[in-house]
Design goal:
Layout (H helix, E strand, L loop, with lengths): L6 E5 L3 H9 L4 E5 L14 H13 L3 E6 L8 H13 L4 E4 L2 H10 L4 E4 L8 H8 L3 E4 L7 H11 L2 E8 L11 H6 L17 E3 L22 E3 L4 H6 L4 E4 L6 H23 L10 H8 L7 E2 L24 H11 L6 E9 L5 E7 L2 E7 L3 E2 L7 H8 L7 E10 L3 E2 L2 H21 L30 E6 L2 H9 L4 E5 L12 E5 L20 E4 L2 H9 L5 E4 L8 H8 L4 E3 L6 H4 L7 H4 E7 L2 E5 L3 H4 L15 E5 L5 E7 L4 E5 L4 E2 L7 H5 L2 E5 L5 H15 L24
Parallel strand pairs: 1-2, 1-10, 2-3, 3-4, 4-5, 5-6, 6-7, 7-10, 9-11, 12-16, 18-19, 18-30, 19-20, 20-21, 21-22, 22-23, 23-24, 24-30
Antiparallel strand pairs: 7-9, 8-26, 12-13, 13-14, 15-17, 24-29, 25-28, 26-27, 27-28
Helix pairs in contact: 1-9, 3-4, 4-16, 5-6, 5-15, 9-11, 14-21
């Protein structure tokens, strides 16, 4: 039988959406400031609005979580920290964070503020949880790709609060591991400005470049467009998994959505508890009318239960139509009339005592909080006396306040008189005092369960090692590329996705790249890596695994760990020997990160295709050609996504990990900037090889080496199309 109550967490992209969610029964609401949130195009809240909203939420026993779940640049961090600190002092309950530097800064500035790890951090196992707990995190929002079994294990092993999505839009890529919008349109999903490139049409091409599988003849195909999620049918399973908070997606959506969806889930969460107390008689059922209403609230063409019972596959997608199906105006009108009429009123209880010769008193109680006010002096009546019923009628008039009496006891001595104005003043004073007392009870230090300042930033200080030789490094994807990189004189090589012996004559550093995503079942794959002299870590799970196993080799942090400020660099430099700079930074944004030891430890990618998406979804599986289910081909082959402009994006099919990596159509190349202070100051210039042939690998690496030595012409580029990424201007 269920005991702990789950939190129903609703989205609010506007003031009206907040009021609607509150009226519909949300236990907590998450919302964003005008900056620093992952929904930059929502209406969002000014600081003044937020202070009012926090106070009003607390009046109804609800909590407010602020979304600061974007990557924060060096110049932005002081403003973010100051603003959150001011809101924390006004009672802000918690923040949802993606950036490691923000976690570190807020842990110091706001001791006791609840720090929640955003789904943008793509937490997939208890190892990631344990790393984040070192930084003071008290709750995680895991990757939406996790199964119900993985969520249950993550909570049990990690011993932390878990917040999981139950309704709303789904990303095709692991959240926080998508750069597609930024590289294709200059609008970063990691900065709250996703352009929704996964909702565009693409053709799926196999390794030969021909249309593949089920959709080969389809005129328009949306192989990256996910169905919206709705878990009403499996709600008891999520309740039994011990999840602490059920989260509704949708800060970009209308107030009617926030209120309507919240109301339905409130209904079924409450119904579950009643059903559970009764011994769970019969089967769990959903009213068809409630399903119809959900489908009438700005969802896509269909609903599904997400990844909770399915690793990937065609049934998770809206292959034929990516857009919203619209909304039922009658349903919207009903929601507006019920939930969008302004601030609701909180039930309170009262007791008034009136005796001749004494001030009138009114005690008002809301939950465990009670106040007593006194006003006027009751006199003996000279004419018609005031009765207890008269007093009751006058005090019950709470319109214009956030309270309503559900029970009001009046003890009035016979034959007394008190002016109506005195009774009005008594009521106003009591309710105002109650409001202030409720608000002040939720200020910093009042009942928070967050770690204190001595419990944050508990990362170990790994012994400093020589970061190794700098220079030109090569990351390679197959044996042919490895051979040619060694022959071309790479100062170090990183083997990505395979293992192979190096040529006997090679004397440079040899590192191995860990998997792009580490799921629970992948832990068994890591033990052999511990023998490598250097490892490139892509996830927090992998980093924590190495710390717990006392790995003594060199730890290299990949760009997917997102160093965008000195605070973030300070986190990783405690435990890593080198870090690859974020692909979304401009040269001007990189330069401050190279101060002090940053330059010697920084790596910058100067050539190669940038991974735009890491996906649990698989193009082979979508097209009915999964190798594990009888499809023909080879694991590790590159397939392609072709957009409307006939541009092709290579997709690496990683069958061993049951995932795909989508790469940019054109390689990044910073060859024209190699003499600038940023690349020249970085200890390592990295070249990444994916689809290149053996010959191309050797030619490109040799050309870059000659270019650095002044022996090559910058205009004689040994490849066709390329991009300079965000190096010139950064990303929005």
């Amino acid at each position: 039988m269920q005991t702990a109550k789950v939190e129903l967490l609703a989205p609010a992209g506007s003031r009206e959406a907040f009021l609607g969610a509150l009226s519909a029964g949300a236990d907590a609401v998450y919302l964003g400031m005008e900056k620093f949130g992952a929904r930059a195009y929502a209406e969002n809240f000014s600081e003044e609005d937020l202070i009012t909203t926090i106070r009003q939420a607390h009046l109804f026993g609800a909590r407010i979580y602020l979304t600061v779940n974007t990557l924060t640049k060096e110049t932005e961090l002081p403003e973010l920290t100051d603003q959150v600190s001011r809101l924390w002092k006004k009672g802000l309950d918690g923040v949802i964070v993606q950036d490691l530097g923000v976690l570190r800064a807020l842990g110091r500035a706001c001791p006791g503020l609840l720090l929640h790890a955003s789904t943008q951090l793509s937490v997939t196992s208890a190892e990631g949880v344990r790393f984040l707990k070192r930084l003071g995190v008290s709750r995680v929002v895991p990757a939406r790709e996790l199964s119900l079994e993985e969520l249950r294990a993550l909570k049990e092993e990690g011993q932390i609060e878990v917040e999981a999505f139950i309704h709303g839009a789904m990303c095709y890529s692991y959240s926080g591991r998508c750069l597609m919008s930024g590289f294709l349109g200059g609008r970063s999903g990691n900065r709250g400005r996703c352009a929704g490139t996964c909702r565009l049409p693409y053709r799926v091409l196999d390794e030969t470049g021909r249309p593949a599988g089920i959709d080969a003849g389809r005129k328009e195909c949306y192989p990256l467009s996910m169905k919206d999620m709705s878990v009403l049918s499996i709600l008891p399973e999520l309740m039994d998994a011990g999840i602490d908070s059920f989260k509704i997606e949708g800060r970009m959506k209308k107030p009617e959505y926030a209120a309507g969806v919240t109301a339905i889930y409130r209904k079924y969460i409450d119904r579950f508890y009643a059903w559970d107390r009764a011994g769970r008689p019969g089967t769990w059922k959903i009213d068809p009318e409630d399903l119809r209403q959900l489908k009438s609230l700005y969802i896509r063409t269909d609903l599904g239960t997400g990844y909770y019972h399915q690793r990937n596959g065609r049934s998770l997608l809206t292959i034929g139509a990516p857009g919203y199906a619209g909304a039922d105006e009658a349903v919207l009108d009903r929601i507006r009339d019920t939930y969008l009429k302004g601030l609701p009123q909180r039930p309170v209880q009262g007791r008034a005592v009136l005796k001749i010769g004494e001030p009138a008193s009114l005690t008002v109680t809301a939950g465990e909080i009670s106040v007593t006010s006194r006003a006027g002096t009751c006199q003996a009546a000279q004419g018609r006396p005031v009765t207890g019923e008269d007093v009751r009628i006058r005090l019950m008039k709470t319109g214009g306040t956030p309270f309503v009496f559900t029970d009001l006891e009046v003890e009035a001595e016979e034959g007394l008189f008190i002016p109506n104005g005195a009774l009005n003043g008594l009521r106003r004073e009591a309710l105002s005092e109650l409001e202030d007392k409720i608000a002040s009870s939720r200020l910093p230090g009042q009942g928070t369960s967050a770690p204190g300042p001595d419990e944050t930033d508990l990362l170990p200080e790994r012994p400093r090692t020589d970061a190794g030789e700098g220079g030109l490094w090569a990351m390679v994807s197959n044996r042919d590329q490895l051979r040619e990189a060694c022959l071309a004189g790479a100062d170090a090589v990183i083997l990505d996705g395979f293992s192979a012996p190096l040529p006997e004559t090679y004397r440079g550093l040899a590192a191995r790249a860990l998997p792009s995503i580490l799921r629970m079942e992948d832990r068994r794959l890591l033990a052999p890596y511990l023998k490598a002299p250097a490892l490139l870590v892509r996830t927090l799970e992998e980093l924590e695994y190495l710390l717990e196993h006392d790995y003594r080799g060199k730890i290299l942090a990949d760009a997917s760990l997102y160093i965008s400020s000195r605070e973030a660099a300070a986190v990783l430099m405690k435990v890593c020997d080198r870090f690859l700079l974020s692909h979304e930074l401009s040269r001007h944004e990189i330069w401050p990160l190279l101060e002090g030891e940053g330059a010697a430890r920084a790596m910058i990618q100067v050539y190669g295709r940038i991974p735009l998406m890491h996906t649990a979804g698989c193009l082979r599986k979508t097209e009915g050609l999964c190798l594990k289910e009888g499809g023909k081909g080879r694991a590790g082959d590159f397939w392609y996504l072709e957009d409307r402009k006939k541009v092709r994006f290579p997709v690496r099919i990683l069958c061993g990990s049951c995932m795909n990596v989508v790469y940019n159509a054109h390689p990044l190349s910073l060859h024209s900037f190699l003499k600038e202070k940023v690349p020249a100051s970085c200890g390592v210039r990295l070249l990444s090889f994916t689809t290149e042939s053996a010959r191309e690998t050797r030619e490109i690496l040799t050309w870059f080496r000659d270019l650095e030595a002044g022996k090559a012409d910058p205009g004689s580029v040994p490849f066709r199309d390329y991009t300079t990424g965000h190096y010139r201007k950064g990303v929005l």
